[in-house]
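Assemble and predict.
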Amino acid sequence: MRGIFKSFRTKARTVIALAGIDFTAAKGSFVSIIGPSGCGKSTLLACVGGMERPTAGQITVDGRVVTGPSRRLGYVFQEESVFPWRTALGNVLFALEDQGGSKNDQIDNARSMLRLVGLQGFENAYPSEMSGGMKQRVAIARVLAAEPEVVLMDEPFGALDQQTRLMVGEQVLRIWEETHQTILFVTHDIQEAILLSNEVVVLSARPARILERVTVPFPHPREASLAGTHEFADIAARLWHTLSGEAKKAFIENEAGAAQ
Amino acid sequence: MTVSTMMIRLRTSQWWTRGVKTGGYVATVVAVAAVWALVTDAGWISDQTVPKLPDIVDAIGTLASAGEVWPNLASTLFRILLSFAIGVTVGIASGGALWRFPRAGGAIRPYLSAIYSVPLVVFYPIFLVVFGLNDWPVVVLTAVITTIPICLNTYLGLQSAPQVLINVGKSLERTSAQIFRQILLPAAWPAVLAGMRLSVVYGVAGVVSLEFVAAQTGVGNRIQYYYETFDVPSMYAFIILTLLLAGGCVGLVLAVEVLTMRGRR
């Protein structure tokens, strides 16, 4: 990513959401992006995914400039995004069926993707029969089936309860350990960011700039119990220190905005 | 308890609930028939107002052997199905158009809702002059009414399709046409079905009532005819046949719903 700016025009004023974001994620790495709420994390991800155009700057993935949504930019949305009229298998097949290859190969491929997210045995279940965590895993399987160059996750566990969140988080960790798929992961949860990623990027309050980049040194495979170690606590404290000042700023600004 | 015995218990209990439900439906019909028999046998109501049930059954038999039942049922059913088919086709297409061109749609929609409140029959003379005395005045006029709920509901369904599902289509490089067919239409489908349920009711009511006014065949025409000739059992025979026909038409839509909504909700 090079010098990403994004501004919105509202009726009253122009809001600058992103002010010169400039960074590169290594291929095969798991990078988390955290920042105070409303700072533009999701906007940044939407720009990388081609869902929105940056006002200035350029995003390059694997040497090619991003101009719009594309199969190579896998997107896991925050909201529930599975099709309720398709089974789990049907949802994953959606990523494959307009590609070449025999129907049987596509089904085999979709099945193995469901296995990867731990949903073997639920191929023929409809979303109405699944929990929130299962639906989000189907969405992840659908994204992985498209074989993207980078997977973009926009607070994918935001709508899940704490326990489900941990479970699905571990599942994503296993998937990364197995595939070494490049992942950009937006979250507001510091623990989650440290546990999952190799690198955490901290954004400032709006307009968003990069405040800090922290490398997470823990080796893989990782367990959730990692969160109890001193090193983990140190990194969390450091991130929290950087973030809390910004969070206050964002909070005060929001309050001021609400009071107007 | 193992999982499989649990499943069996669940299934049996499902069958049980379903059996109780069906039993309830049958019991309702039996109860109505019993009250009917009681009231008519006791002579509280004259045979000229409400005939005895066996007389109606006899009348249906006589009419059937005279070759009067099937042709009239068939011509009414044909008119209902044709106007419903037009309603579904034109309704989905025009609902899509309202959604696609929101400004023009906004100008038209209030009038569509307003047509509901106008009794169909007032337009009948015009249509009769245009089409002549055949199936078409009834069919076209009814089709106008069957189209509207499907059109409005299709519009609403498309309008409320979640943006995130459309974004899934975009990120998997679907064209606009593919997104419409593979995502927007299925997302709008429950709303379309709700429109179809209204539409089929309007279709039956429209066809039968227009047959009263001017048609040479059809159950509505027959009810009118036997009313005028004081043949009360035959009149009731066609009223009951009309109820069965209406039930069948509504059942058809419900069957479509059950088949296409499997697993949803």
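The radius of gyration of chain A is 19 Å.
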